[in-house]
Each structure stands twice: as structure tokens, then as C-alpha cells.
Amino acid sequence: MFDKILIANRGEIACRVIKTARKMGIKTVAIYSDADKQALHVKMADEAVHIGPPPANQSYIVIDKVMDAIRQTGAQAVHPGYGFLSENSKFAEALEAEGVAFVGPPVGAIEAMGDKITSKKIAQEANVSTVPGYMGLIENADEAVKISNQIGYPVMIKASAGGGGKGMRIAWNDEEAREGFQSSKNEAANSFGDDRIFIEKFVTQPRHIEIQVLCDAHGNGIYLNERECSIQRRNQKVVEEAPSPFLDEATRKAMGEQSVALARAVGYASAGTVEFIVDGDKNFYFLEMNTRLQVEHPVTELITGVDLVEQMIRVASGEKLSITQDDVQLNGWAIENRLYAEDPYRGFLPSIGRLTRYRPPAELAGGLLHENGKWQGDAPAGDGIAVRNDTGVYEGGEISMYYDPMIAKLCTWAPTRGAAIEAMRNALDGFEVEGIGHNLPFLSAVMDHAKFISGDMTTAFIEEEYPDGFQGVELASETLRRIAAATAAMHRVAEIRRTRVSGRMDNHERRVGTNWVVTLQGEEFPLKVKADKKGSTIKFADGGKLRVTSDWTPGDQLARVKVGDDLLVLKVGKIPGGFRIRSRGADLKVHVRTPRQTELARLMPEKVAPDTSRLLLCPMPGLIVKVNVEVGQEVQEGQALCTVEAMKMENILRAERTGTVSRINAGAGDSLAVDDVIMEFE
Fold this sequence. Notes:
Largest sheet: 8 strands, antiparallel
Number of helices: 18
Shape: globular
Radius of gyration: 27 Å
Number of strands: 39
């Protein structure tokens, strides 16, 4: 077994690998760029080596710099994580030449299956059903348009060396094929150092289901069931679960056996994932094979009890698999939500800055749960649930514009899918993040969405259910009623604290009063608060009552409130006359006023937002890549105006209506902040 491993990655996956290596008694080496000097993975590792400037193509994916770090530290093996160099055969060859073990598959397997074009050809030769497409190299946008027409729209334009949604575009016509080809090519070059592109038919109404495989160098191979990854945005997974709510045992077995056979055909040895598109009749089609650890691997670990990182390390050291197919269990249900540094209210555009507050929910069950691939006991956690959070950040740390915006993976496990969803709802409500835009409200909305709850979803879920983007959540009246009861009781506690501080009256209870009107989401709830030593009874004007108990005290930013039989987990902020409450994806301004104050508040005019309809504002911190128009030019609705790059993704900004460009304030190469004016219109 190795004594020291270098992790050729950053962020949460580097931290994840360090945890398992530490458990195995293996020392770890981190590498870091200028932007990551204070990063969590650097703090966790036994050693750390600086490798260059912030851009990945000047640091993390420069093979020579990583090799220098290996030589400096004497690392015997390298775990590449995912992304960056994880599927780079030249990197694996460099390690082999240096006599350093690659914690991943052999070079031949990477070349055969890591390359999306080659892998599809091999799958076709092996009589594996594949999606129609063009596997040859595509030289330019004109050829891309020609091929797209031959295949038939819609088509998927993909980076050959891609992954994680980078370098992917869906095109429905010639113009989108032309634009998508160039953007995919640019993103592929920036993210992977390989700008080759291929095109395939985009299958409508698909489900994205993948099989986890695990093979050693001695001819042994198993599959560890499937993961459902259909909740995606811009081809990047957002929510994953294991198992799939759609598959039956026969289909699961067929997909698993086919995946192992494909892996064996290329001499695969390590953890890998075979991805499929599955239609409504459970027909499945090979999509690609990822020759690395997947982002969503924790849900597989939670339902099987197998530590995939440990198994990868053992295979890389030459050990045989200690797990057989008969040992693989399907225990309970696991769900993963990816927490991204992005603003769902601004079209999910990247957000950067300092994490002024970062408090994940408490983890249950102590993280990984395994012993040679077998469960110890009947369930992985007390009280029937487990909570796991794989993260690479900490409170006070910076979210950089140079890397992927994912900052954590929140996972829950429970014996049933319904219980796992409910555990996830409470975990999301209890996750405190401030200082940056984040997608926690959106994730909460998905967990409460009827289609997700039923398991009836496709990869078009977000596009279909949120066609105009995410505008927040409108809570049901009964939920608002419970929040009104909770905040009325909380307001009473805060008012008692305030009167005690003032010292103006001994009988604080009498000064605070009992009659209030709670206003939230456009609804008013007149109510009366009757308190005792154990809590408060809230009586509404319609005669209904709710019992409220909580240990919340003024200043706490998280409140756990029992309202009737329900537990509410509320994120709490103070505003004049009430609270800012965030719960179940909703962001509410809650005012608790006396009846007279409520009457007066109704007379107050609403503040009107400034008119920005004649301005193109930068929707995120980023770099202007290209300006497509010039002063005096008339533009049409939907026309591309400019391209902004942030977090390795190119975003094309388009005209919302017809107009004439009157002024351009930024050009290619300029770095802009959120809401900087890029151009103005007459």
C-alpha cells in the first residue's frame, strides 16, 4: 500500500480523497494555485505545493507543474479526482514513465473510453445500442451545420474530452449549431486543453441513468447499481439519487452486466461510470463512459456501503477486489443536491465573493459507512436517516471566478425515497450560506415539486418546469399560516428582550401585548399570542389554533420551531418590524405589527424599481470574450450582443427586444462586476 498520495485537484473532491486517505493511514499532498492558497484542501493535506496562477490552464492542468510537485514530495501515487487531468492519457503516461501509480484506469482504457468519439465506436463494434451521431472530427462551424442537418435537429454538440456539462450545447437550428460549435470548442479548450468536438442526435424526453462499475487489474469487475441523474441544467447535473425510481430489477441487471462487459473489453481497472439514455419504455442507449470518479459517487456509497475512493486506491496498488457482485446491496435510498455558487434569481449565473456565513447541517452517521463493501448493521444511521456534506469551502473563504461554481454536495439517506426527500428538505432548510448567490432556494423547490416527488421526470425537467427561470417559491396558504404562527411567537420573544433592555417597565409581558397581524407573501393573519412557560398558543381570527414551541432566541440565524405537529426549520434575518424568513425555497419578508400599524402600513406606497430596460447589464462577474454589435447598429429580439465568460462557462447575452445600440461601454478582455453597464440602447 502507498505511504503518500498527491491529489491533482482542488475543492470538495480533494477534501473527499484526503478523508479516505487519512482513514487508510496514507499521507496526502495538495497542490494549489494563487487563488487557492487558503483553500480547505490545502489546510487538510499533510503537505501542499504551489503550482501557479489562478487559471487552470496555467496551474492545475499543466502536467509538468504537477509532475514537479510529485518529485518534490516523493508521492507514490496520484488521485486525479474528476475534471482537470482525470481523463488525460498524457498525464497517466507521464506518471507511468515516472514510476508513479495513477489512481485510475490504465492508459489504454482512458484513450479507448475517456475519449467520447472512440468510446462510441467501440460500443458500436460491441453491438451496444448507441445514439445516432457523427464520430469523426469536425473542423469548423460550417461542417458542424452540415452534419447537424444530416443527423436531424435537435442535436447535441459535445466536447470529446468533456465532462461536467462543460463544452456542451443543444442546437435546434443552423444558427444555434454554428454558435454552439464555437462556444463548445472554446469551453473545451479552456477546461480540458482539448478542443475536439462531436455531434449526436439529441433524444427528447430522456432519462439520464448511469451505472457505477468497479474493476481490478486481475479481471474482476462488478457494478454497484445505478444513479438517476435526470435533474440537469445546461447538461450539468443538479440533483442525483440512487437507486432510480424508474428502473426495475431486470433493466438494472441488464444495464449493469452490459456496463461491466464494456469495461472488461477495454481492460478497465478502477472505478468508472457508464452513462445511458433511457426512454419511457426502459430502452437504454449507451451514451459515454467516464473513466474517473463521478461527482455523484456519494449516493452510491450510501446505498451500497462501499467507499469508492478506498477501492480505487486499493486497485491502483495492485490488490484484487474484495467485493463480489453478490456482496453488492441496494440498501435504502440516497439523494444528492449540488450546492452551486450561482444566483437562481439571475438565471443561475455564477456568483463569487466571500462566504460571510457557511454553516452546513450537522452530518449524521459519521460519513462513509462500509467494511469491505458490506453494511455493518441493518441501516447506516440512527433514527433512520443519514446526512453527509462533501465540501471544499469554509466560512470566511473566497469563492473564485476561476473554477467550477459547485461548493458542496449535500446528501441524505433513509430507508425509503419519501423519507430521504423529507430528510433533504430539512437539511436544505438548515444549510446557512451568506455572502454569495446560491441555489439553495431552487433545490428546496425541486424537493417539493410534484414531478420530482412522483419520480416522473426527464432531463428536460428544469427547462419544462421553469421555462422563464426560477422566480422563487409561492408557499401554500396553510404553510404561510404555520410560518405566521412561528414568527408571531418569535416576535413576542424579541419584544420581551427589547423591553427588558430598555428597563422602562417591570411587567414586560404586559408591555409587549398579545394582538398582532402577521403579513407575508401578500396575506394577512390577524392573531392573538397566549404564552406560557412551555411555549405559545396562537389563536387566529377565524378561530383556528396552533401550538408553537421553540428554543429560538433573538439573534439566532436559524430557528427550529415546532408548529402543531410540524417541524419548521427557518433561516432568520431581522428587518424593521419583522423578519426575513427563508424556508422551503421561499424568501419572505414577514412583518409582525399591531392592528393599528397594519392599517397605516396599507397606506404606504410601494417602492418602484429603476428602469433598466434600455441597458444591457452584466449579469455576473466575468470577462468579456466578444462584442457582436457596434454603435448605431439595429438589433432584433434574440440577437447575440456579447459573450461573457465566468467559471469556465461562456454565456451569450441576447437582446430582449428590438432597438438601436447607442453606446458600448466595454470590450473584449474587460473584466466586469455584476450590473456593470455593457451597452446602452436608444
